[in-house]
Specification:
By secondary structure, this protein is of the alpha/beta class. It is built from twelve helices and 14 strands. The strands form three sheets. The protein has an eight-stranded parallel barrel, surrounded by eight helices. Strands 5-6-12-11 form a four-stranded antiparallel sheet, with no helix packed on it. Strand 3, helix 1 and strand 4 form a beta-alpha-beta unit. Bound molecules: flavin mononucleotide.
Length: 368
């Protein structure tokens, strides 16, 4: 029977499914519930030292629906303008310690964010790790609200700042540190490599993609609408999965040796396996759990086990990154295709077959 457990940076996950930082890990109570239901780990909602600087709006979510009539009620994307946790830091410390006491064998990763100040980063790392959490995820990637305070994506888009902040966290951390990347950048591998160079154990990718989820055609107001106005927010869910897969694949190729926690639009085991195949050791889920409930952990585990049994994989490590060697350049694809055609033509000639006009026409169509 397939073994779903995986050890990443010394942390042993009973399965590779981790709830991503966001509403699913918004307090100790729901974190415990996720452990009870079988999640391998959880990254808590991002904490900072001072919650009184965090002001959320209502509404702060906007849904993106499938456009075709057969699935009108199907949400395929999700936009949020939610900030990091607005709960007091000391309360969080008590709850994290309590979760670890009750579930010592489940992986609890603390997502943290602070201002551009070494002392503050050292303080948040030291005080948080005293709770017994298993690892850190540095939120260098929240795309809305926080960048106005020069935090989140404002840090993650600047490789020099990424290196500096990761360096500060690593100075104080006695547990593994993952750096969470923003996809809102031309080349995600630049900050990923900067984080690695500064000692990050792992790369988490991706945070949400900046988007405008829609405009109300009666009021002309963008959504989600707060007192008639809005701002671009972070887009997540099924619709972002192909974009996330690409970014995770690129991080894995650019940072050999780094562990990768992949996410973006995962709802099923088949979605998750694709992230493992492009190099992730763990797969995080946020929007999928918000839309379908924490209970999706069961079909995720069952589906992963079925996939492993079908291919005869005994452990998850056996297929992590298995699809990476099949990514290449366009020039190489052209060369491979030419070689395949030469091979086929040679075969046809050897078989004494006439290729004819139809085949020439197909070739010219393929060339377009
Ligand atoms: C409502 C909401 C709140 C989020 N809050 C955080 C957060 O506090 N910290 C963080 O690092 N990521 C946050 N995220 C981003 C998710 O962790 C994840 O990176 C992103 O949503 C892509 O994964 P998904 O498609 O499974 O949701 C949030 C996402 C959503 C939808």
């Amino acid at each position: 029977m397939a073994d779903l457990s995986i050890t990443v940076d010394g942390m042993r996950f009973p399965n590779p499914f981790v709830l991503a930082s966001g509403p699913p890990g918004t307090n100790g109570k729901v974190i415990k519930r996720s452990f009870e239901l079988g999640w391998g780990g959880i990254v808590c909602k991002t904490l900072s030292l001072e919650n009184d600087k965090v002001h959320n709006t209502v509404p702060r979510y906007g849904k993106y629906y499938h456009a075709h009539s057969t699935a009108k009620d199907q949400v395929i994307g999700f936009q949020n303008i939610e900030l990091i946790s607005d709960r007091p830091f000391d309360l969080w410390l008590d709850e994290l310690a309590d979760c670890k006491r009750e579930y010592p064998d489940r992986m609890l990763i603390a997502s943290i964010m602070e201002e551009y100040d070494r002392d503050r980063w050292i303080e948040i790392v030291e005080r948080t790790q005293a709770t017994g959490i298993d690892g850190f995820e540095l939120n260098l990637s929240c795309p809305h609200g926080l960048p106005e305070r020069r935090m989140g994506a404002a840090m993650g888009q600047d490789p020099a700042i990424v290196a500096e902040v990761v360096g500060w966290a690593k100075e104080a951390a006695r547990v593994p540190v993952w750096a969470k990347m923003t996809p809102n950048i031309t080349d995600i591998t630049v900050p990923a490599k900067a984080a690695r160079g500064a000692g990050a154990d792992g790369i988490s990718a991706i945070n949400t993609i900046l988007a405008v989820v829609g405009i109300d055609l009666d009021s002309f107001r963008p959504m989600p609408t707060v007192e008639g106005y809005s701002e671009p927010g972070g887009f997540s869910g099924e619709a972002v999965r192909p974009l996330a897969l690409r970014q995770v694949m690129e991080c894995a190729r650019a940072c050999p040796g780094a562990t990768i926690s992949g996410m973006g639009g995962v709802e099923t085991a088949e979605d998750a396996v694709q992230f493992l195949l492009v190099g992730a050791q763990t797969v995080q889920v946020c929007t999928g759990a918000m839309l379908h409930g924490y209970e999706i952990i069961q079909p995720l585990c069952e589906g992963l086990e079925a996939f492993m049994d079908r291919h005869g994989f005994a452990t998850v490590e056996e297929f992590v990154g298995k699809s990476l060697p099949y990514f290449t350049t366009h020039a190489d694809l052209v060369e491979r295709q030419r070689a395949a055609k030469r091979e086929k033509a040679g075969q046809s000639n050897r078989d004494g077959m006439w290729r004819g006009d139809i085949s020439a026409e197909t070739d010219s169509l393929a060339a377009n």
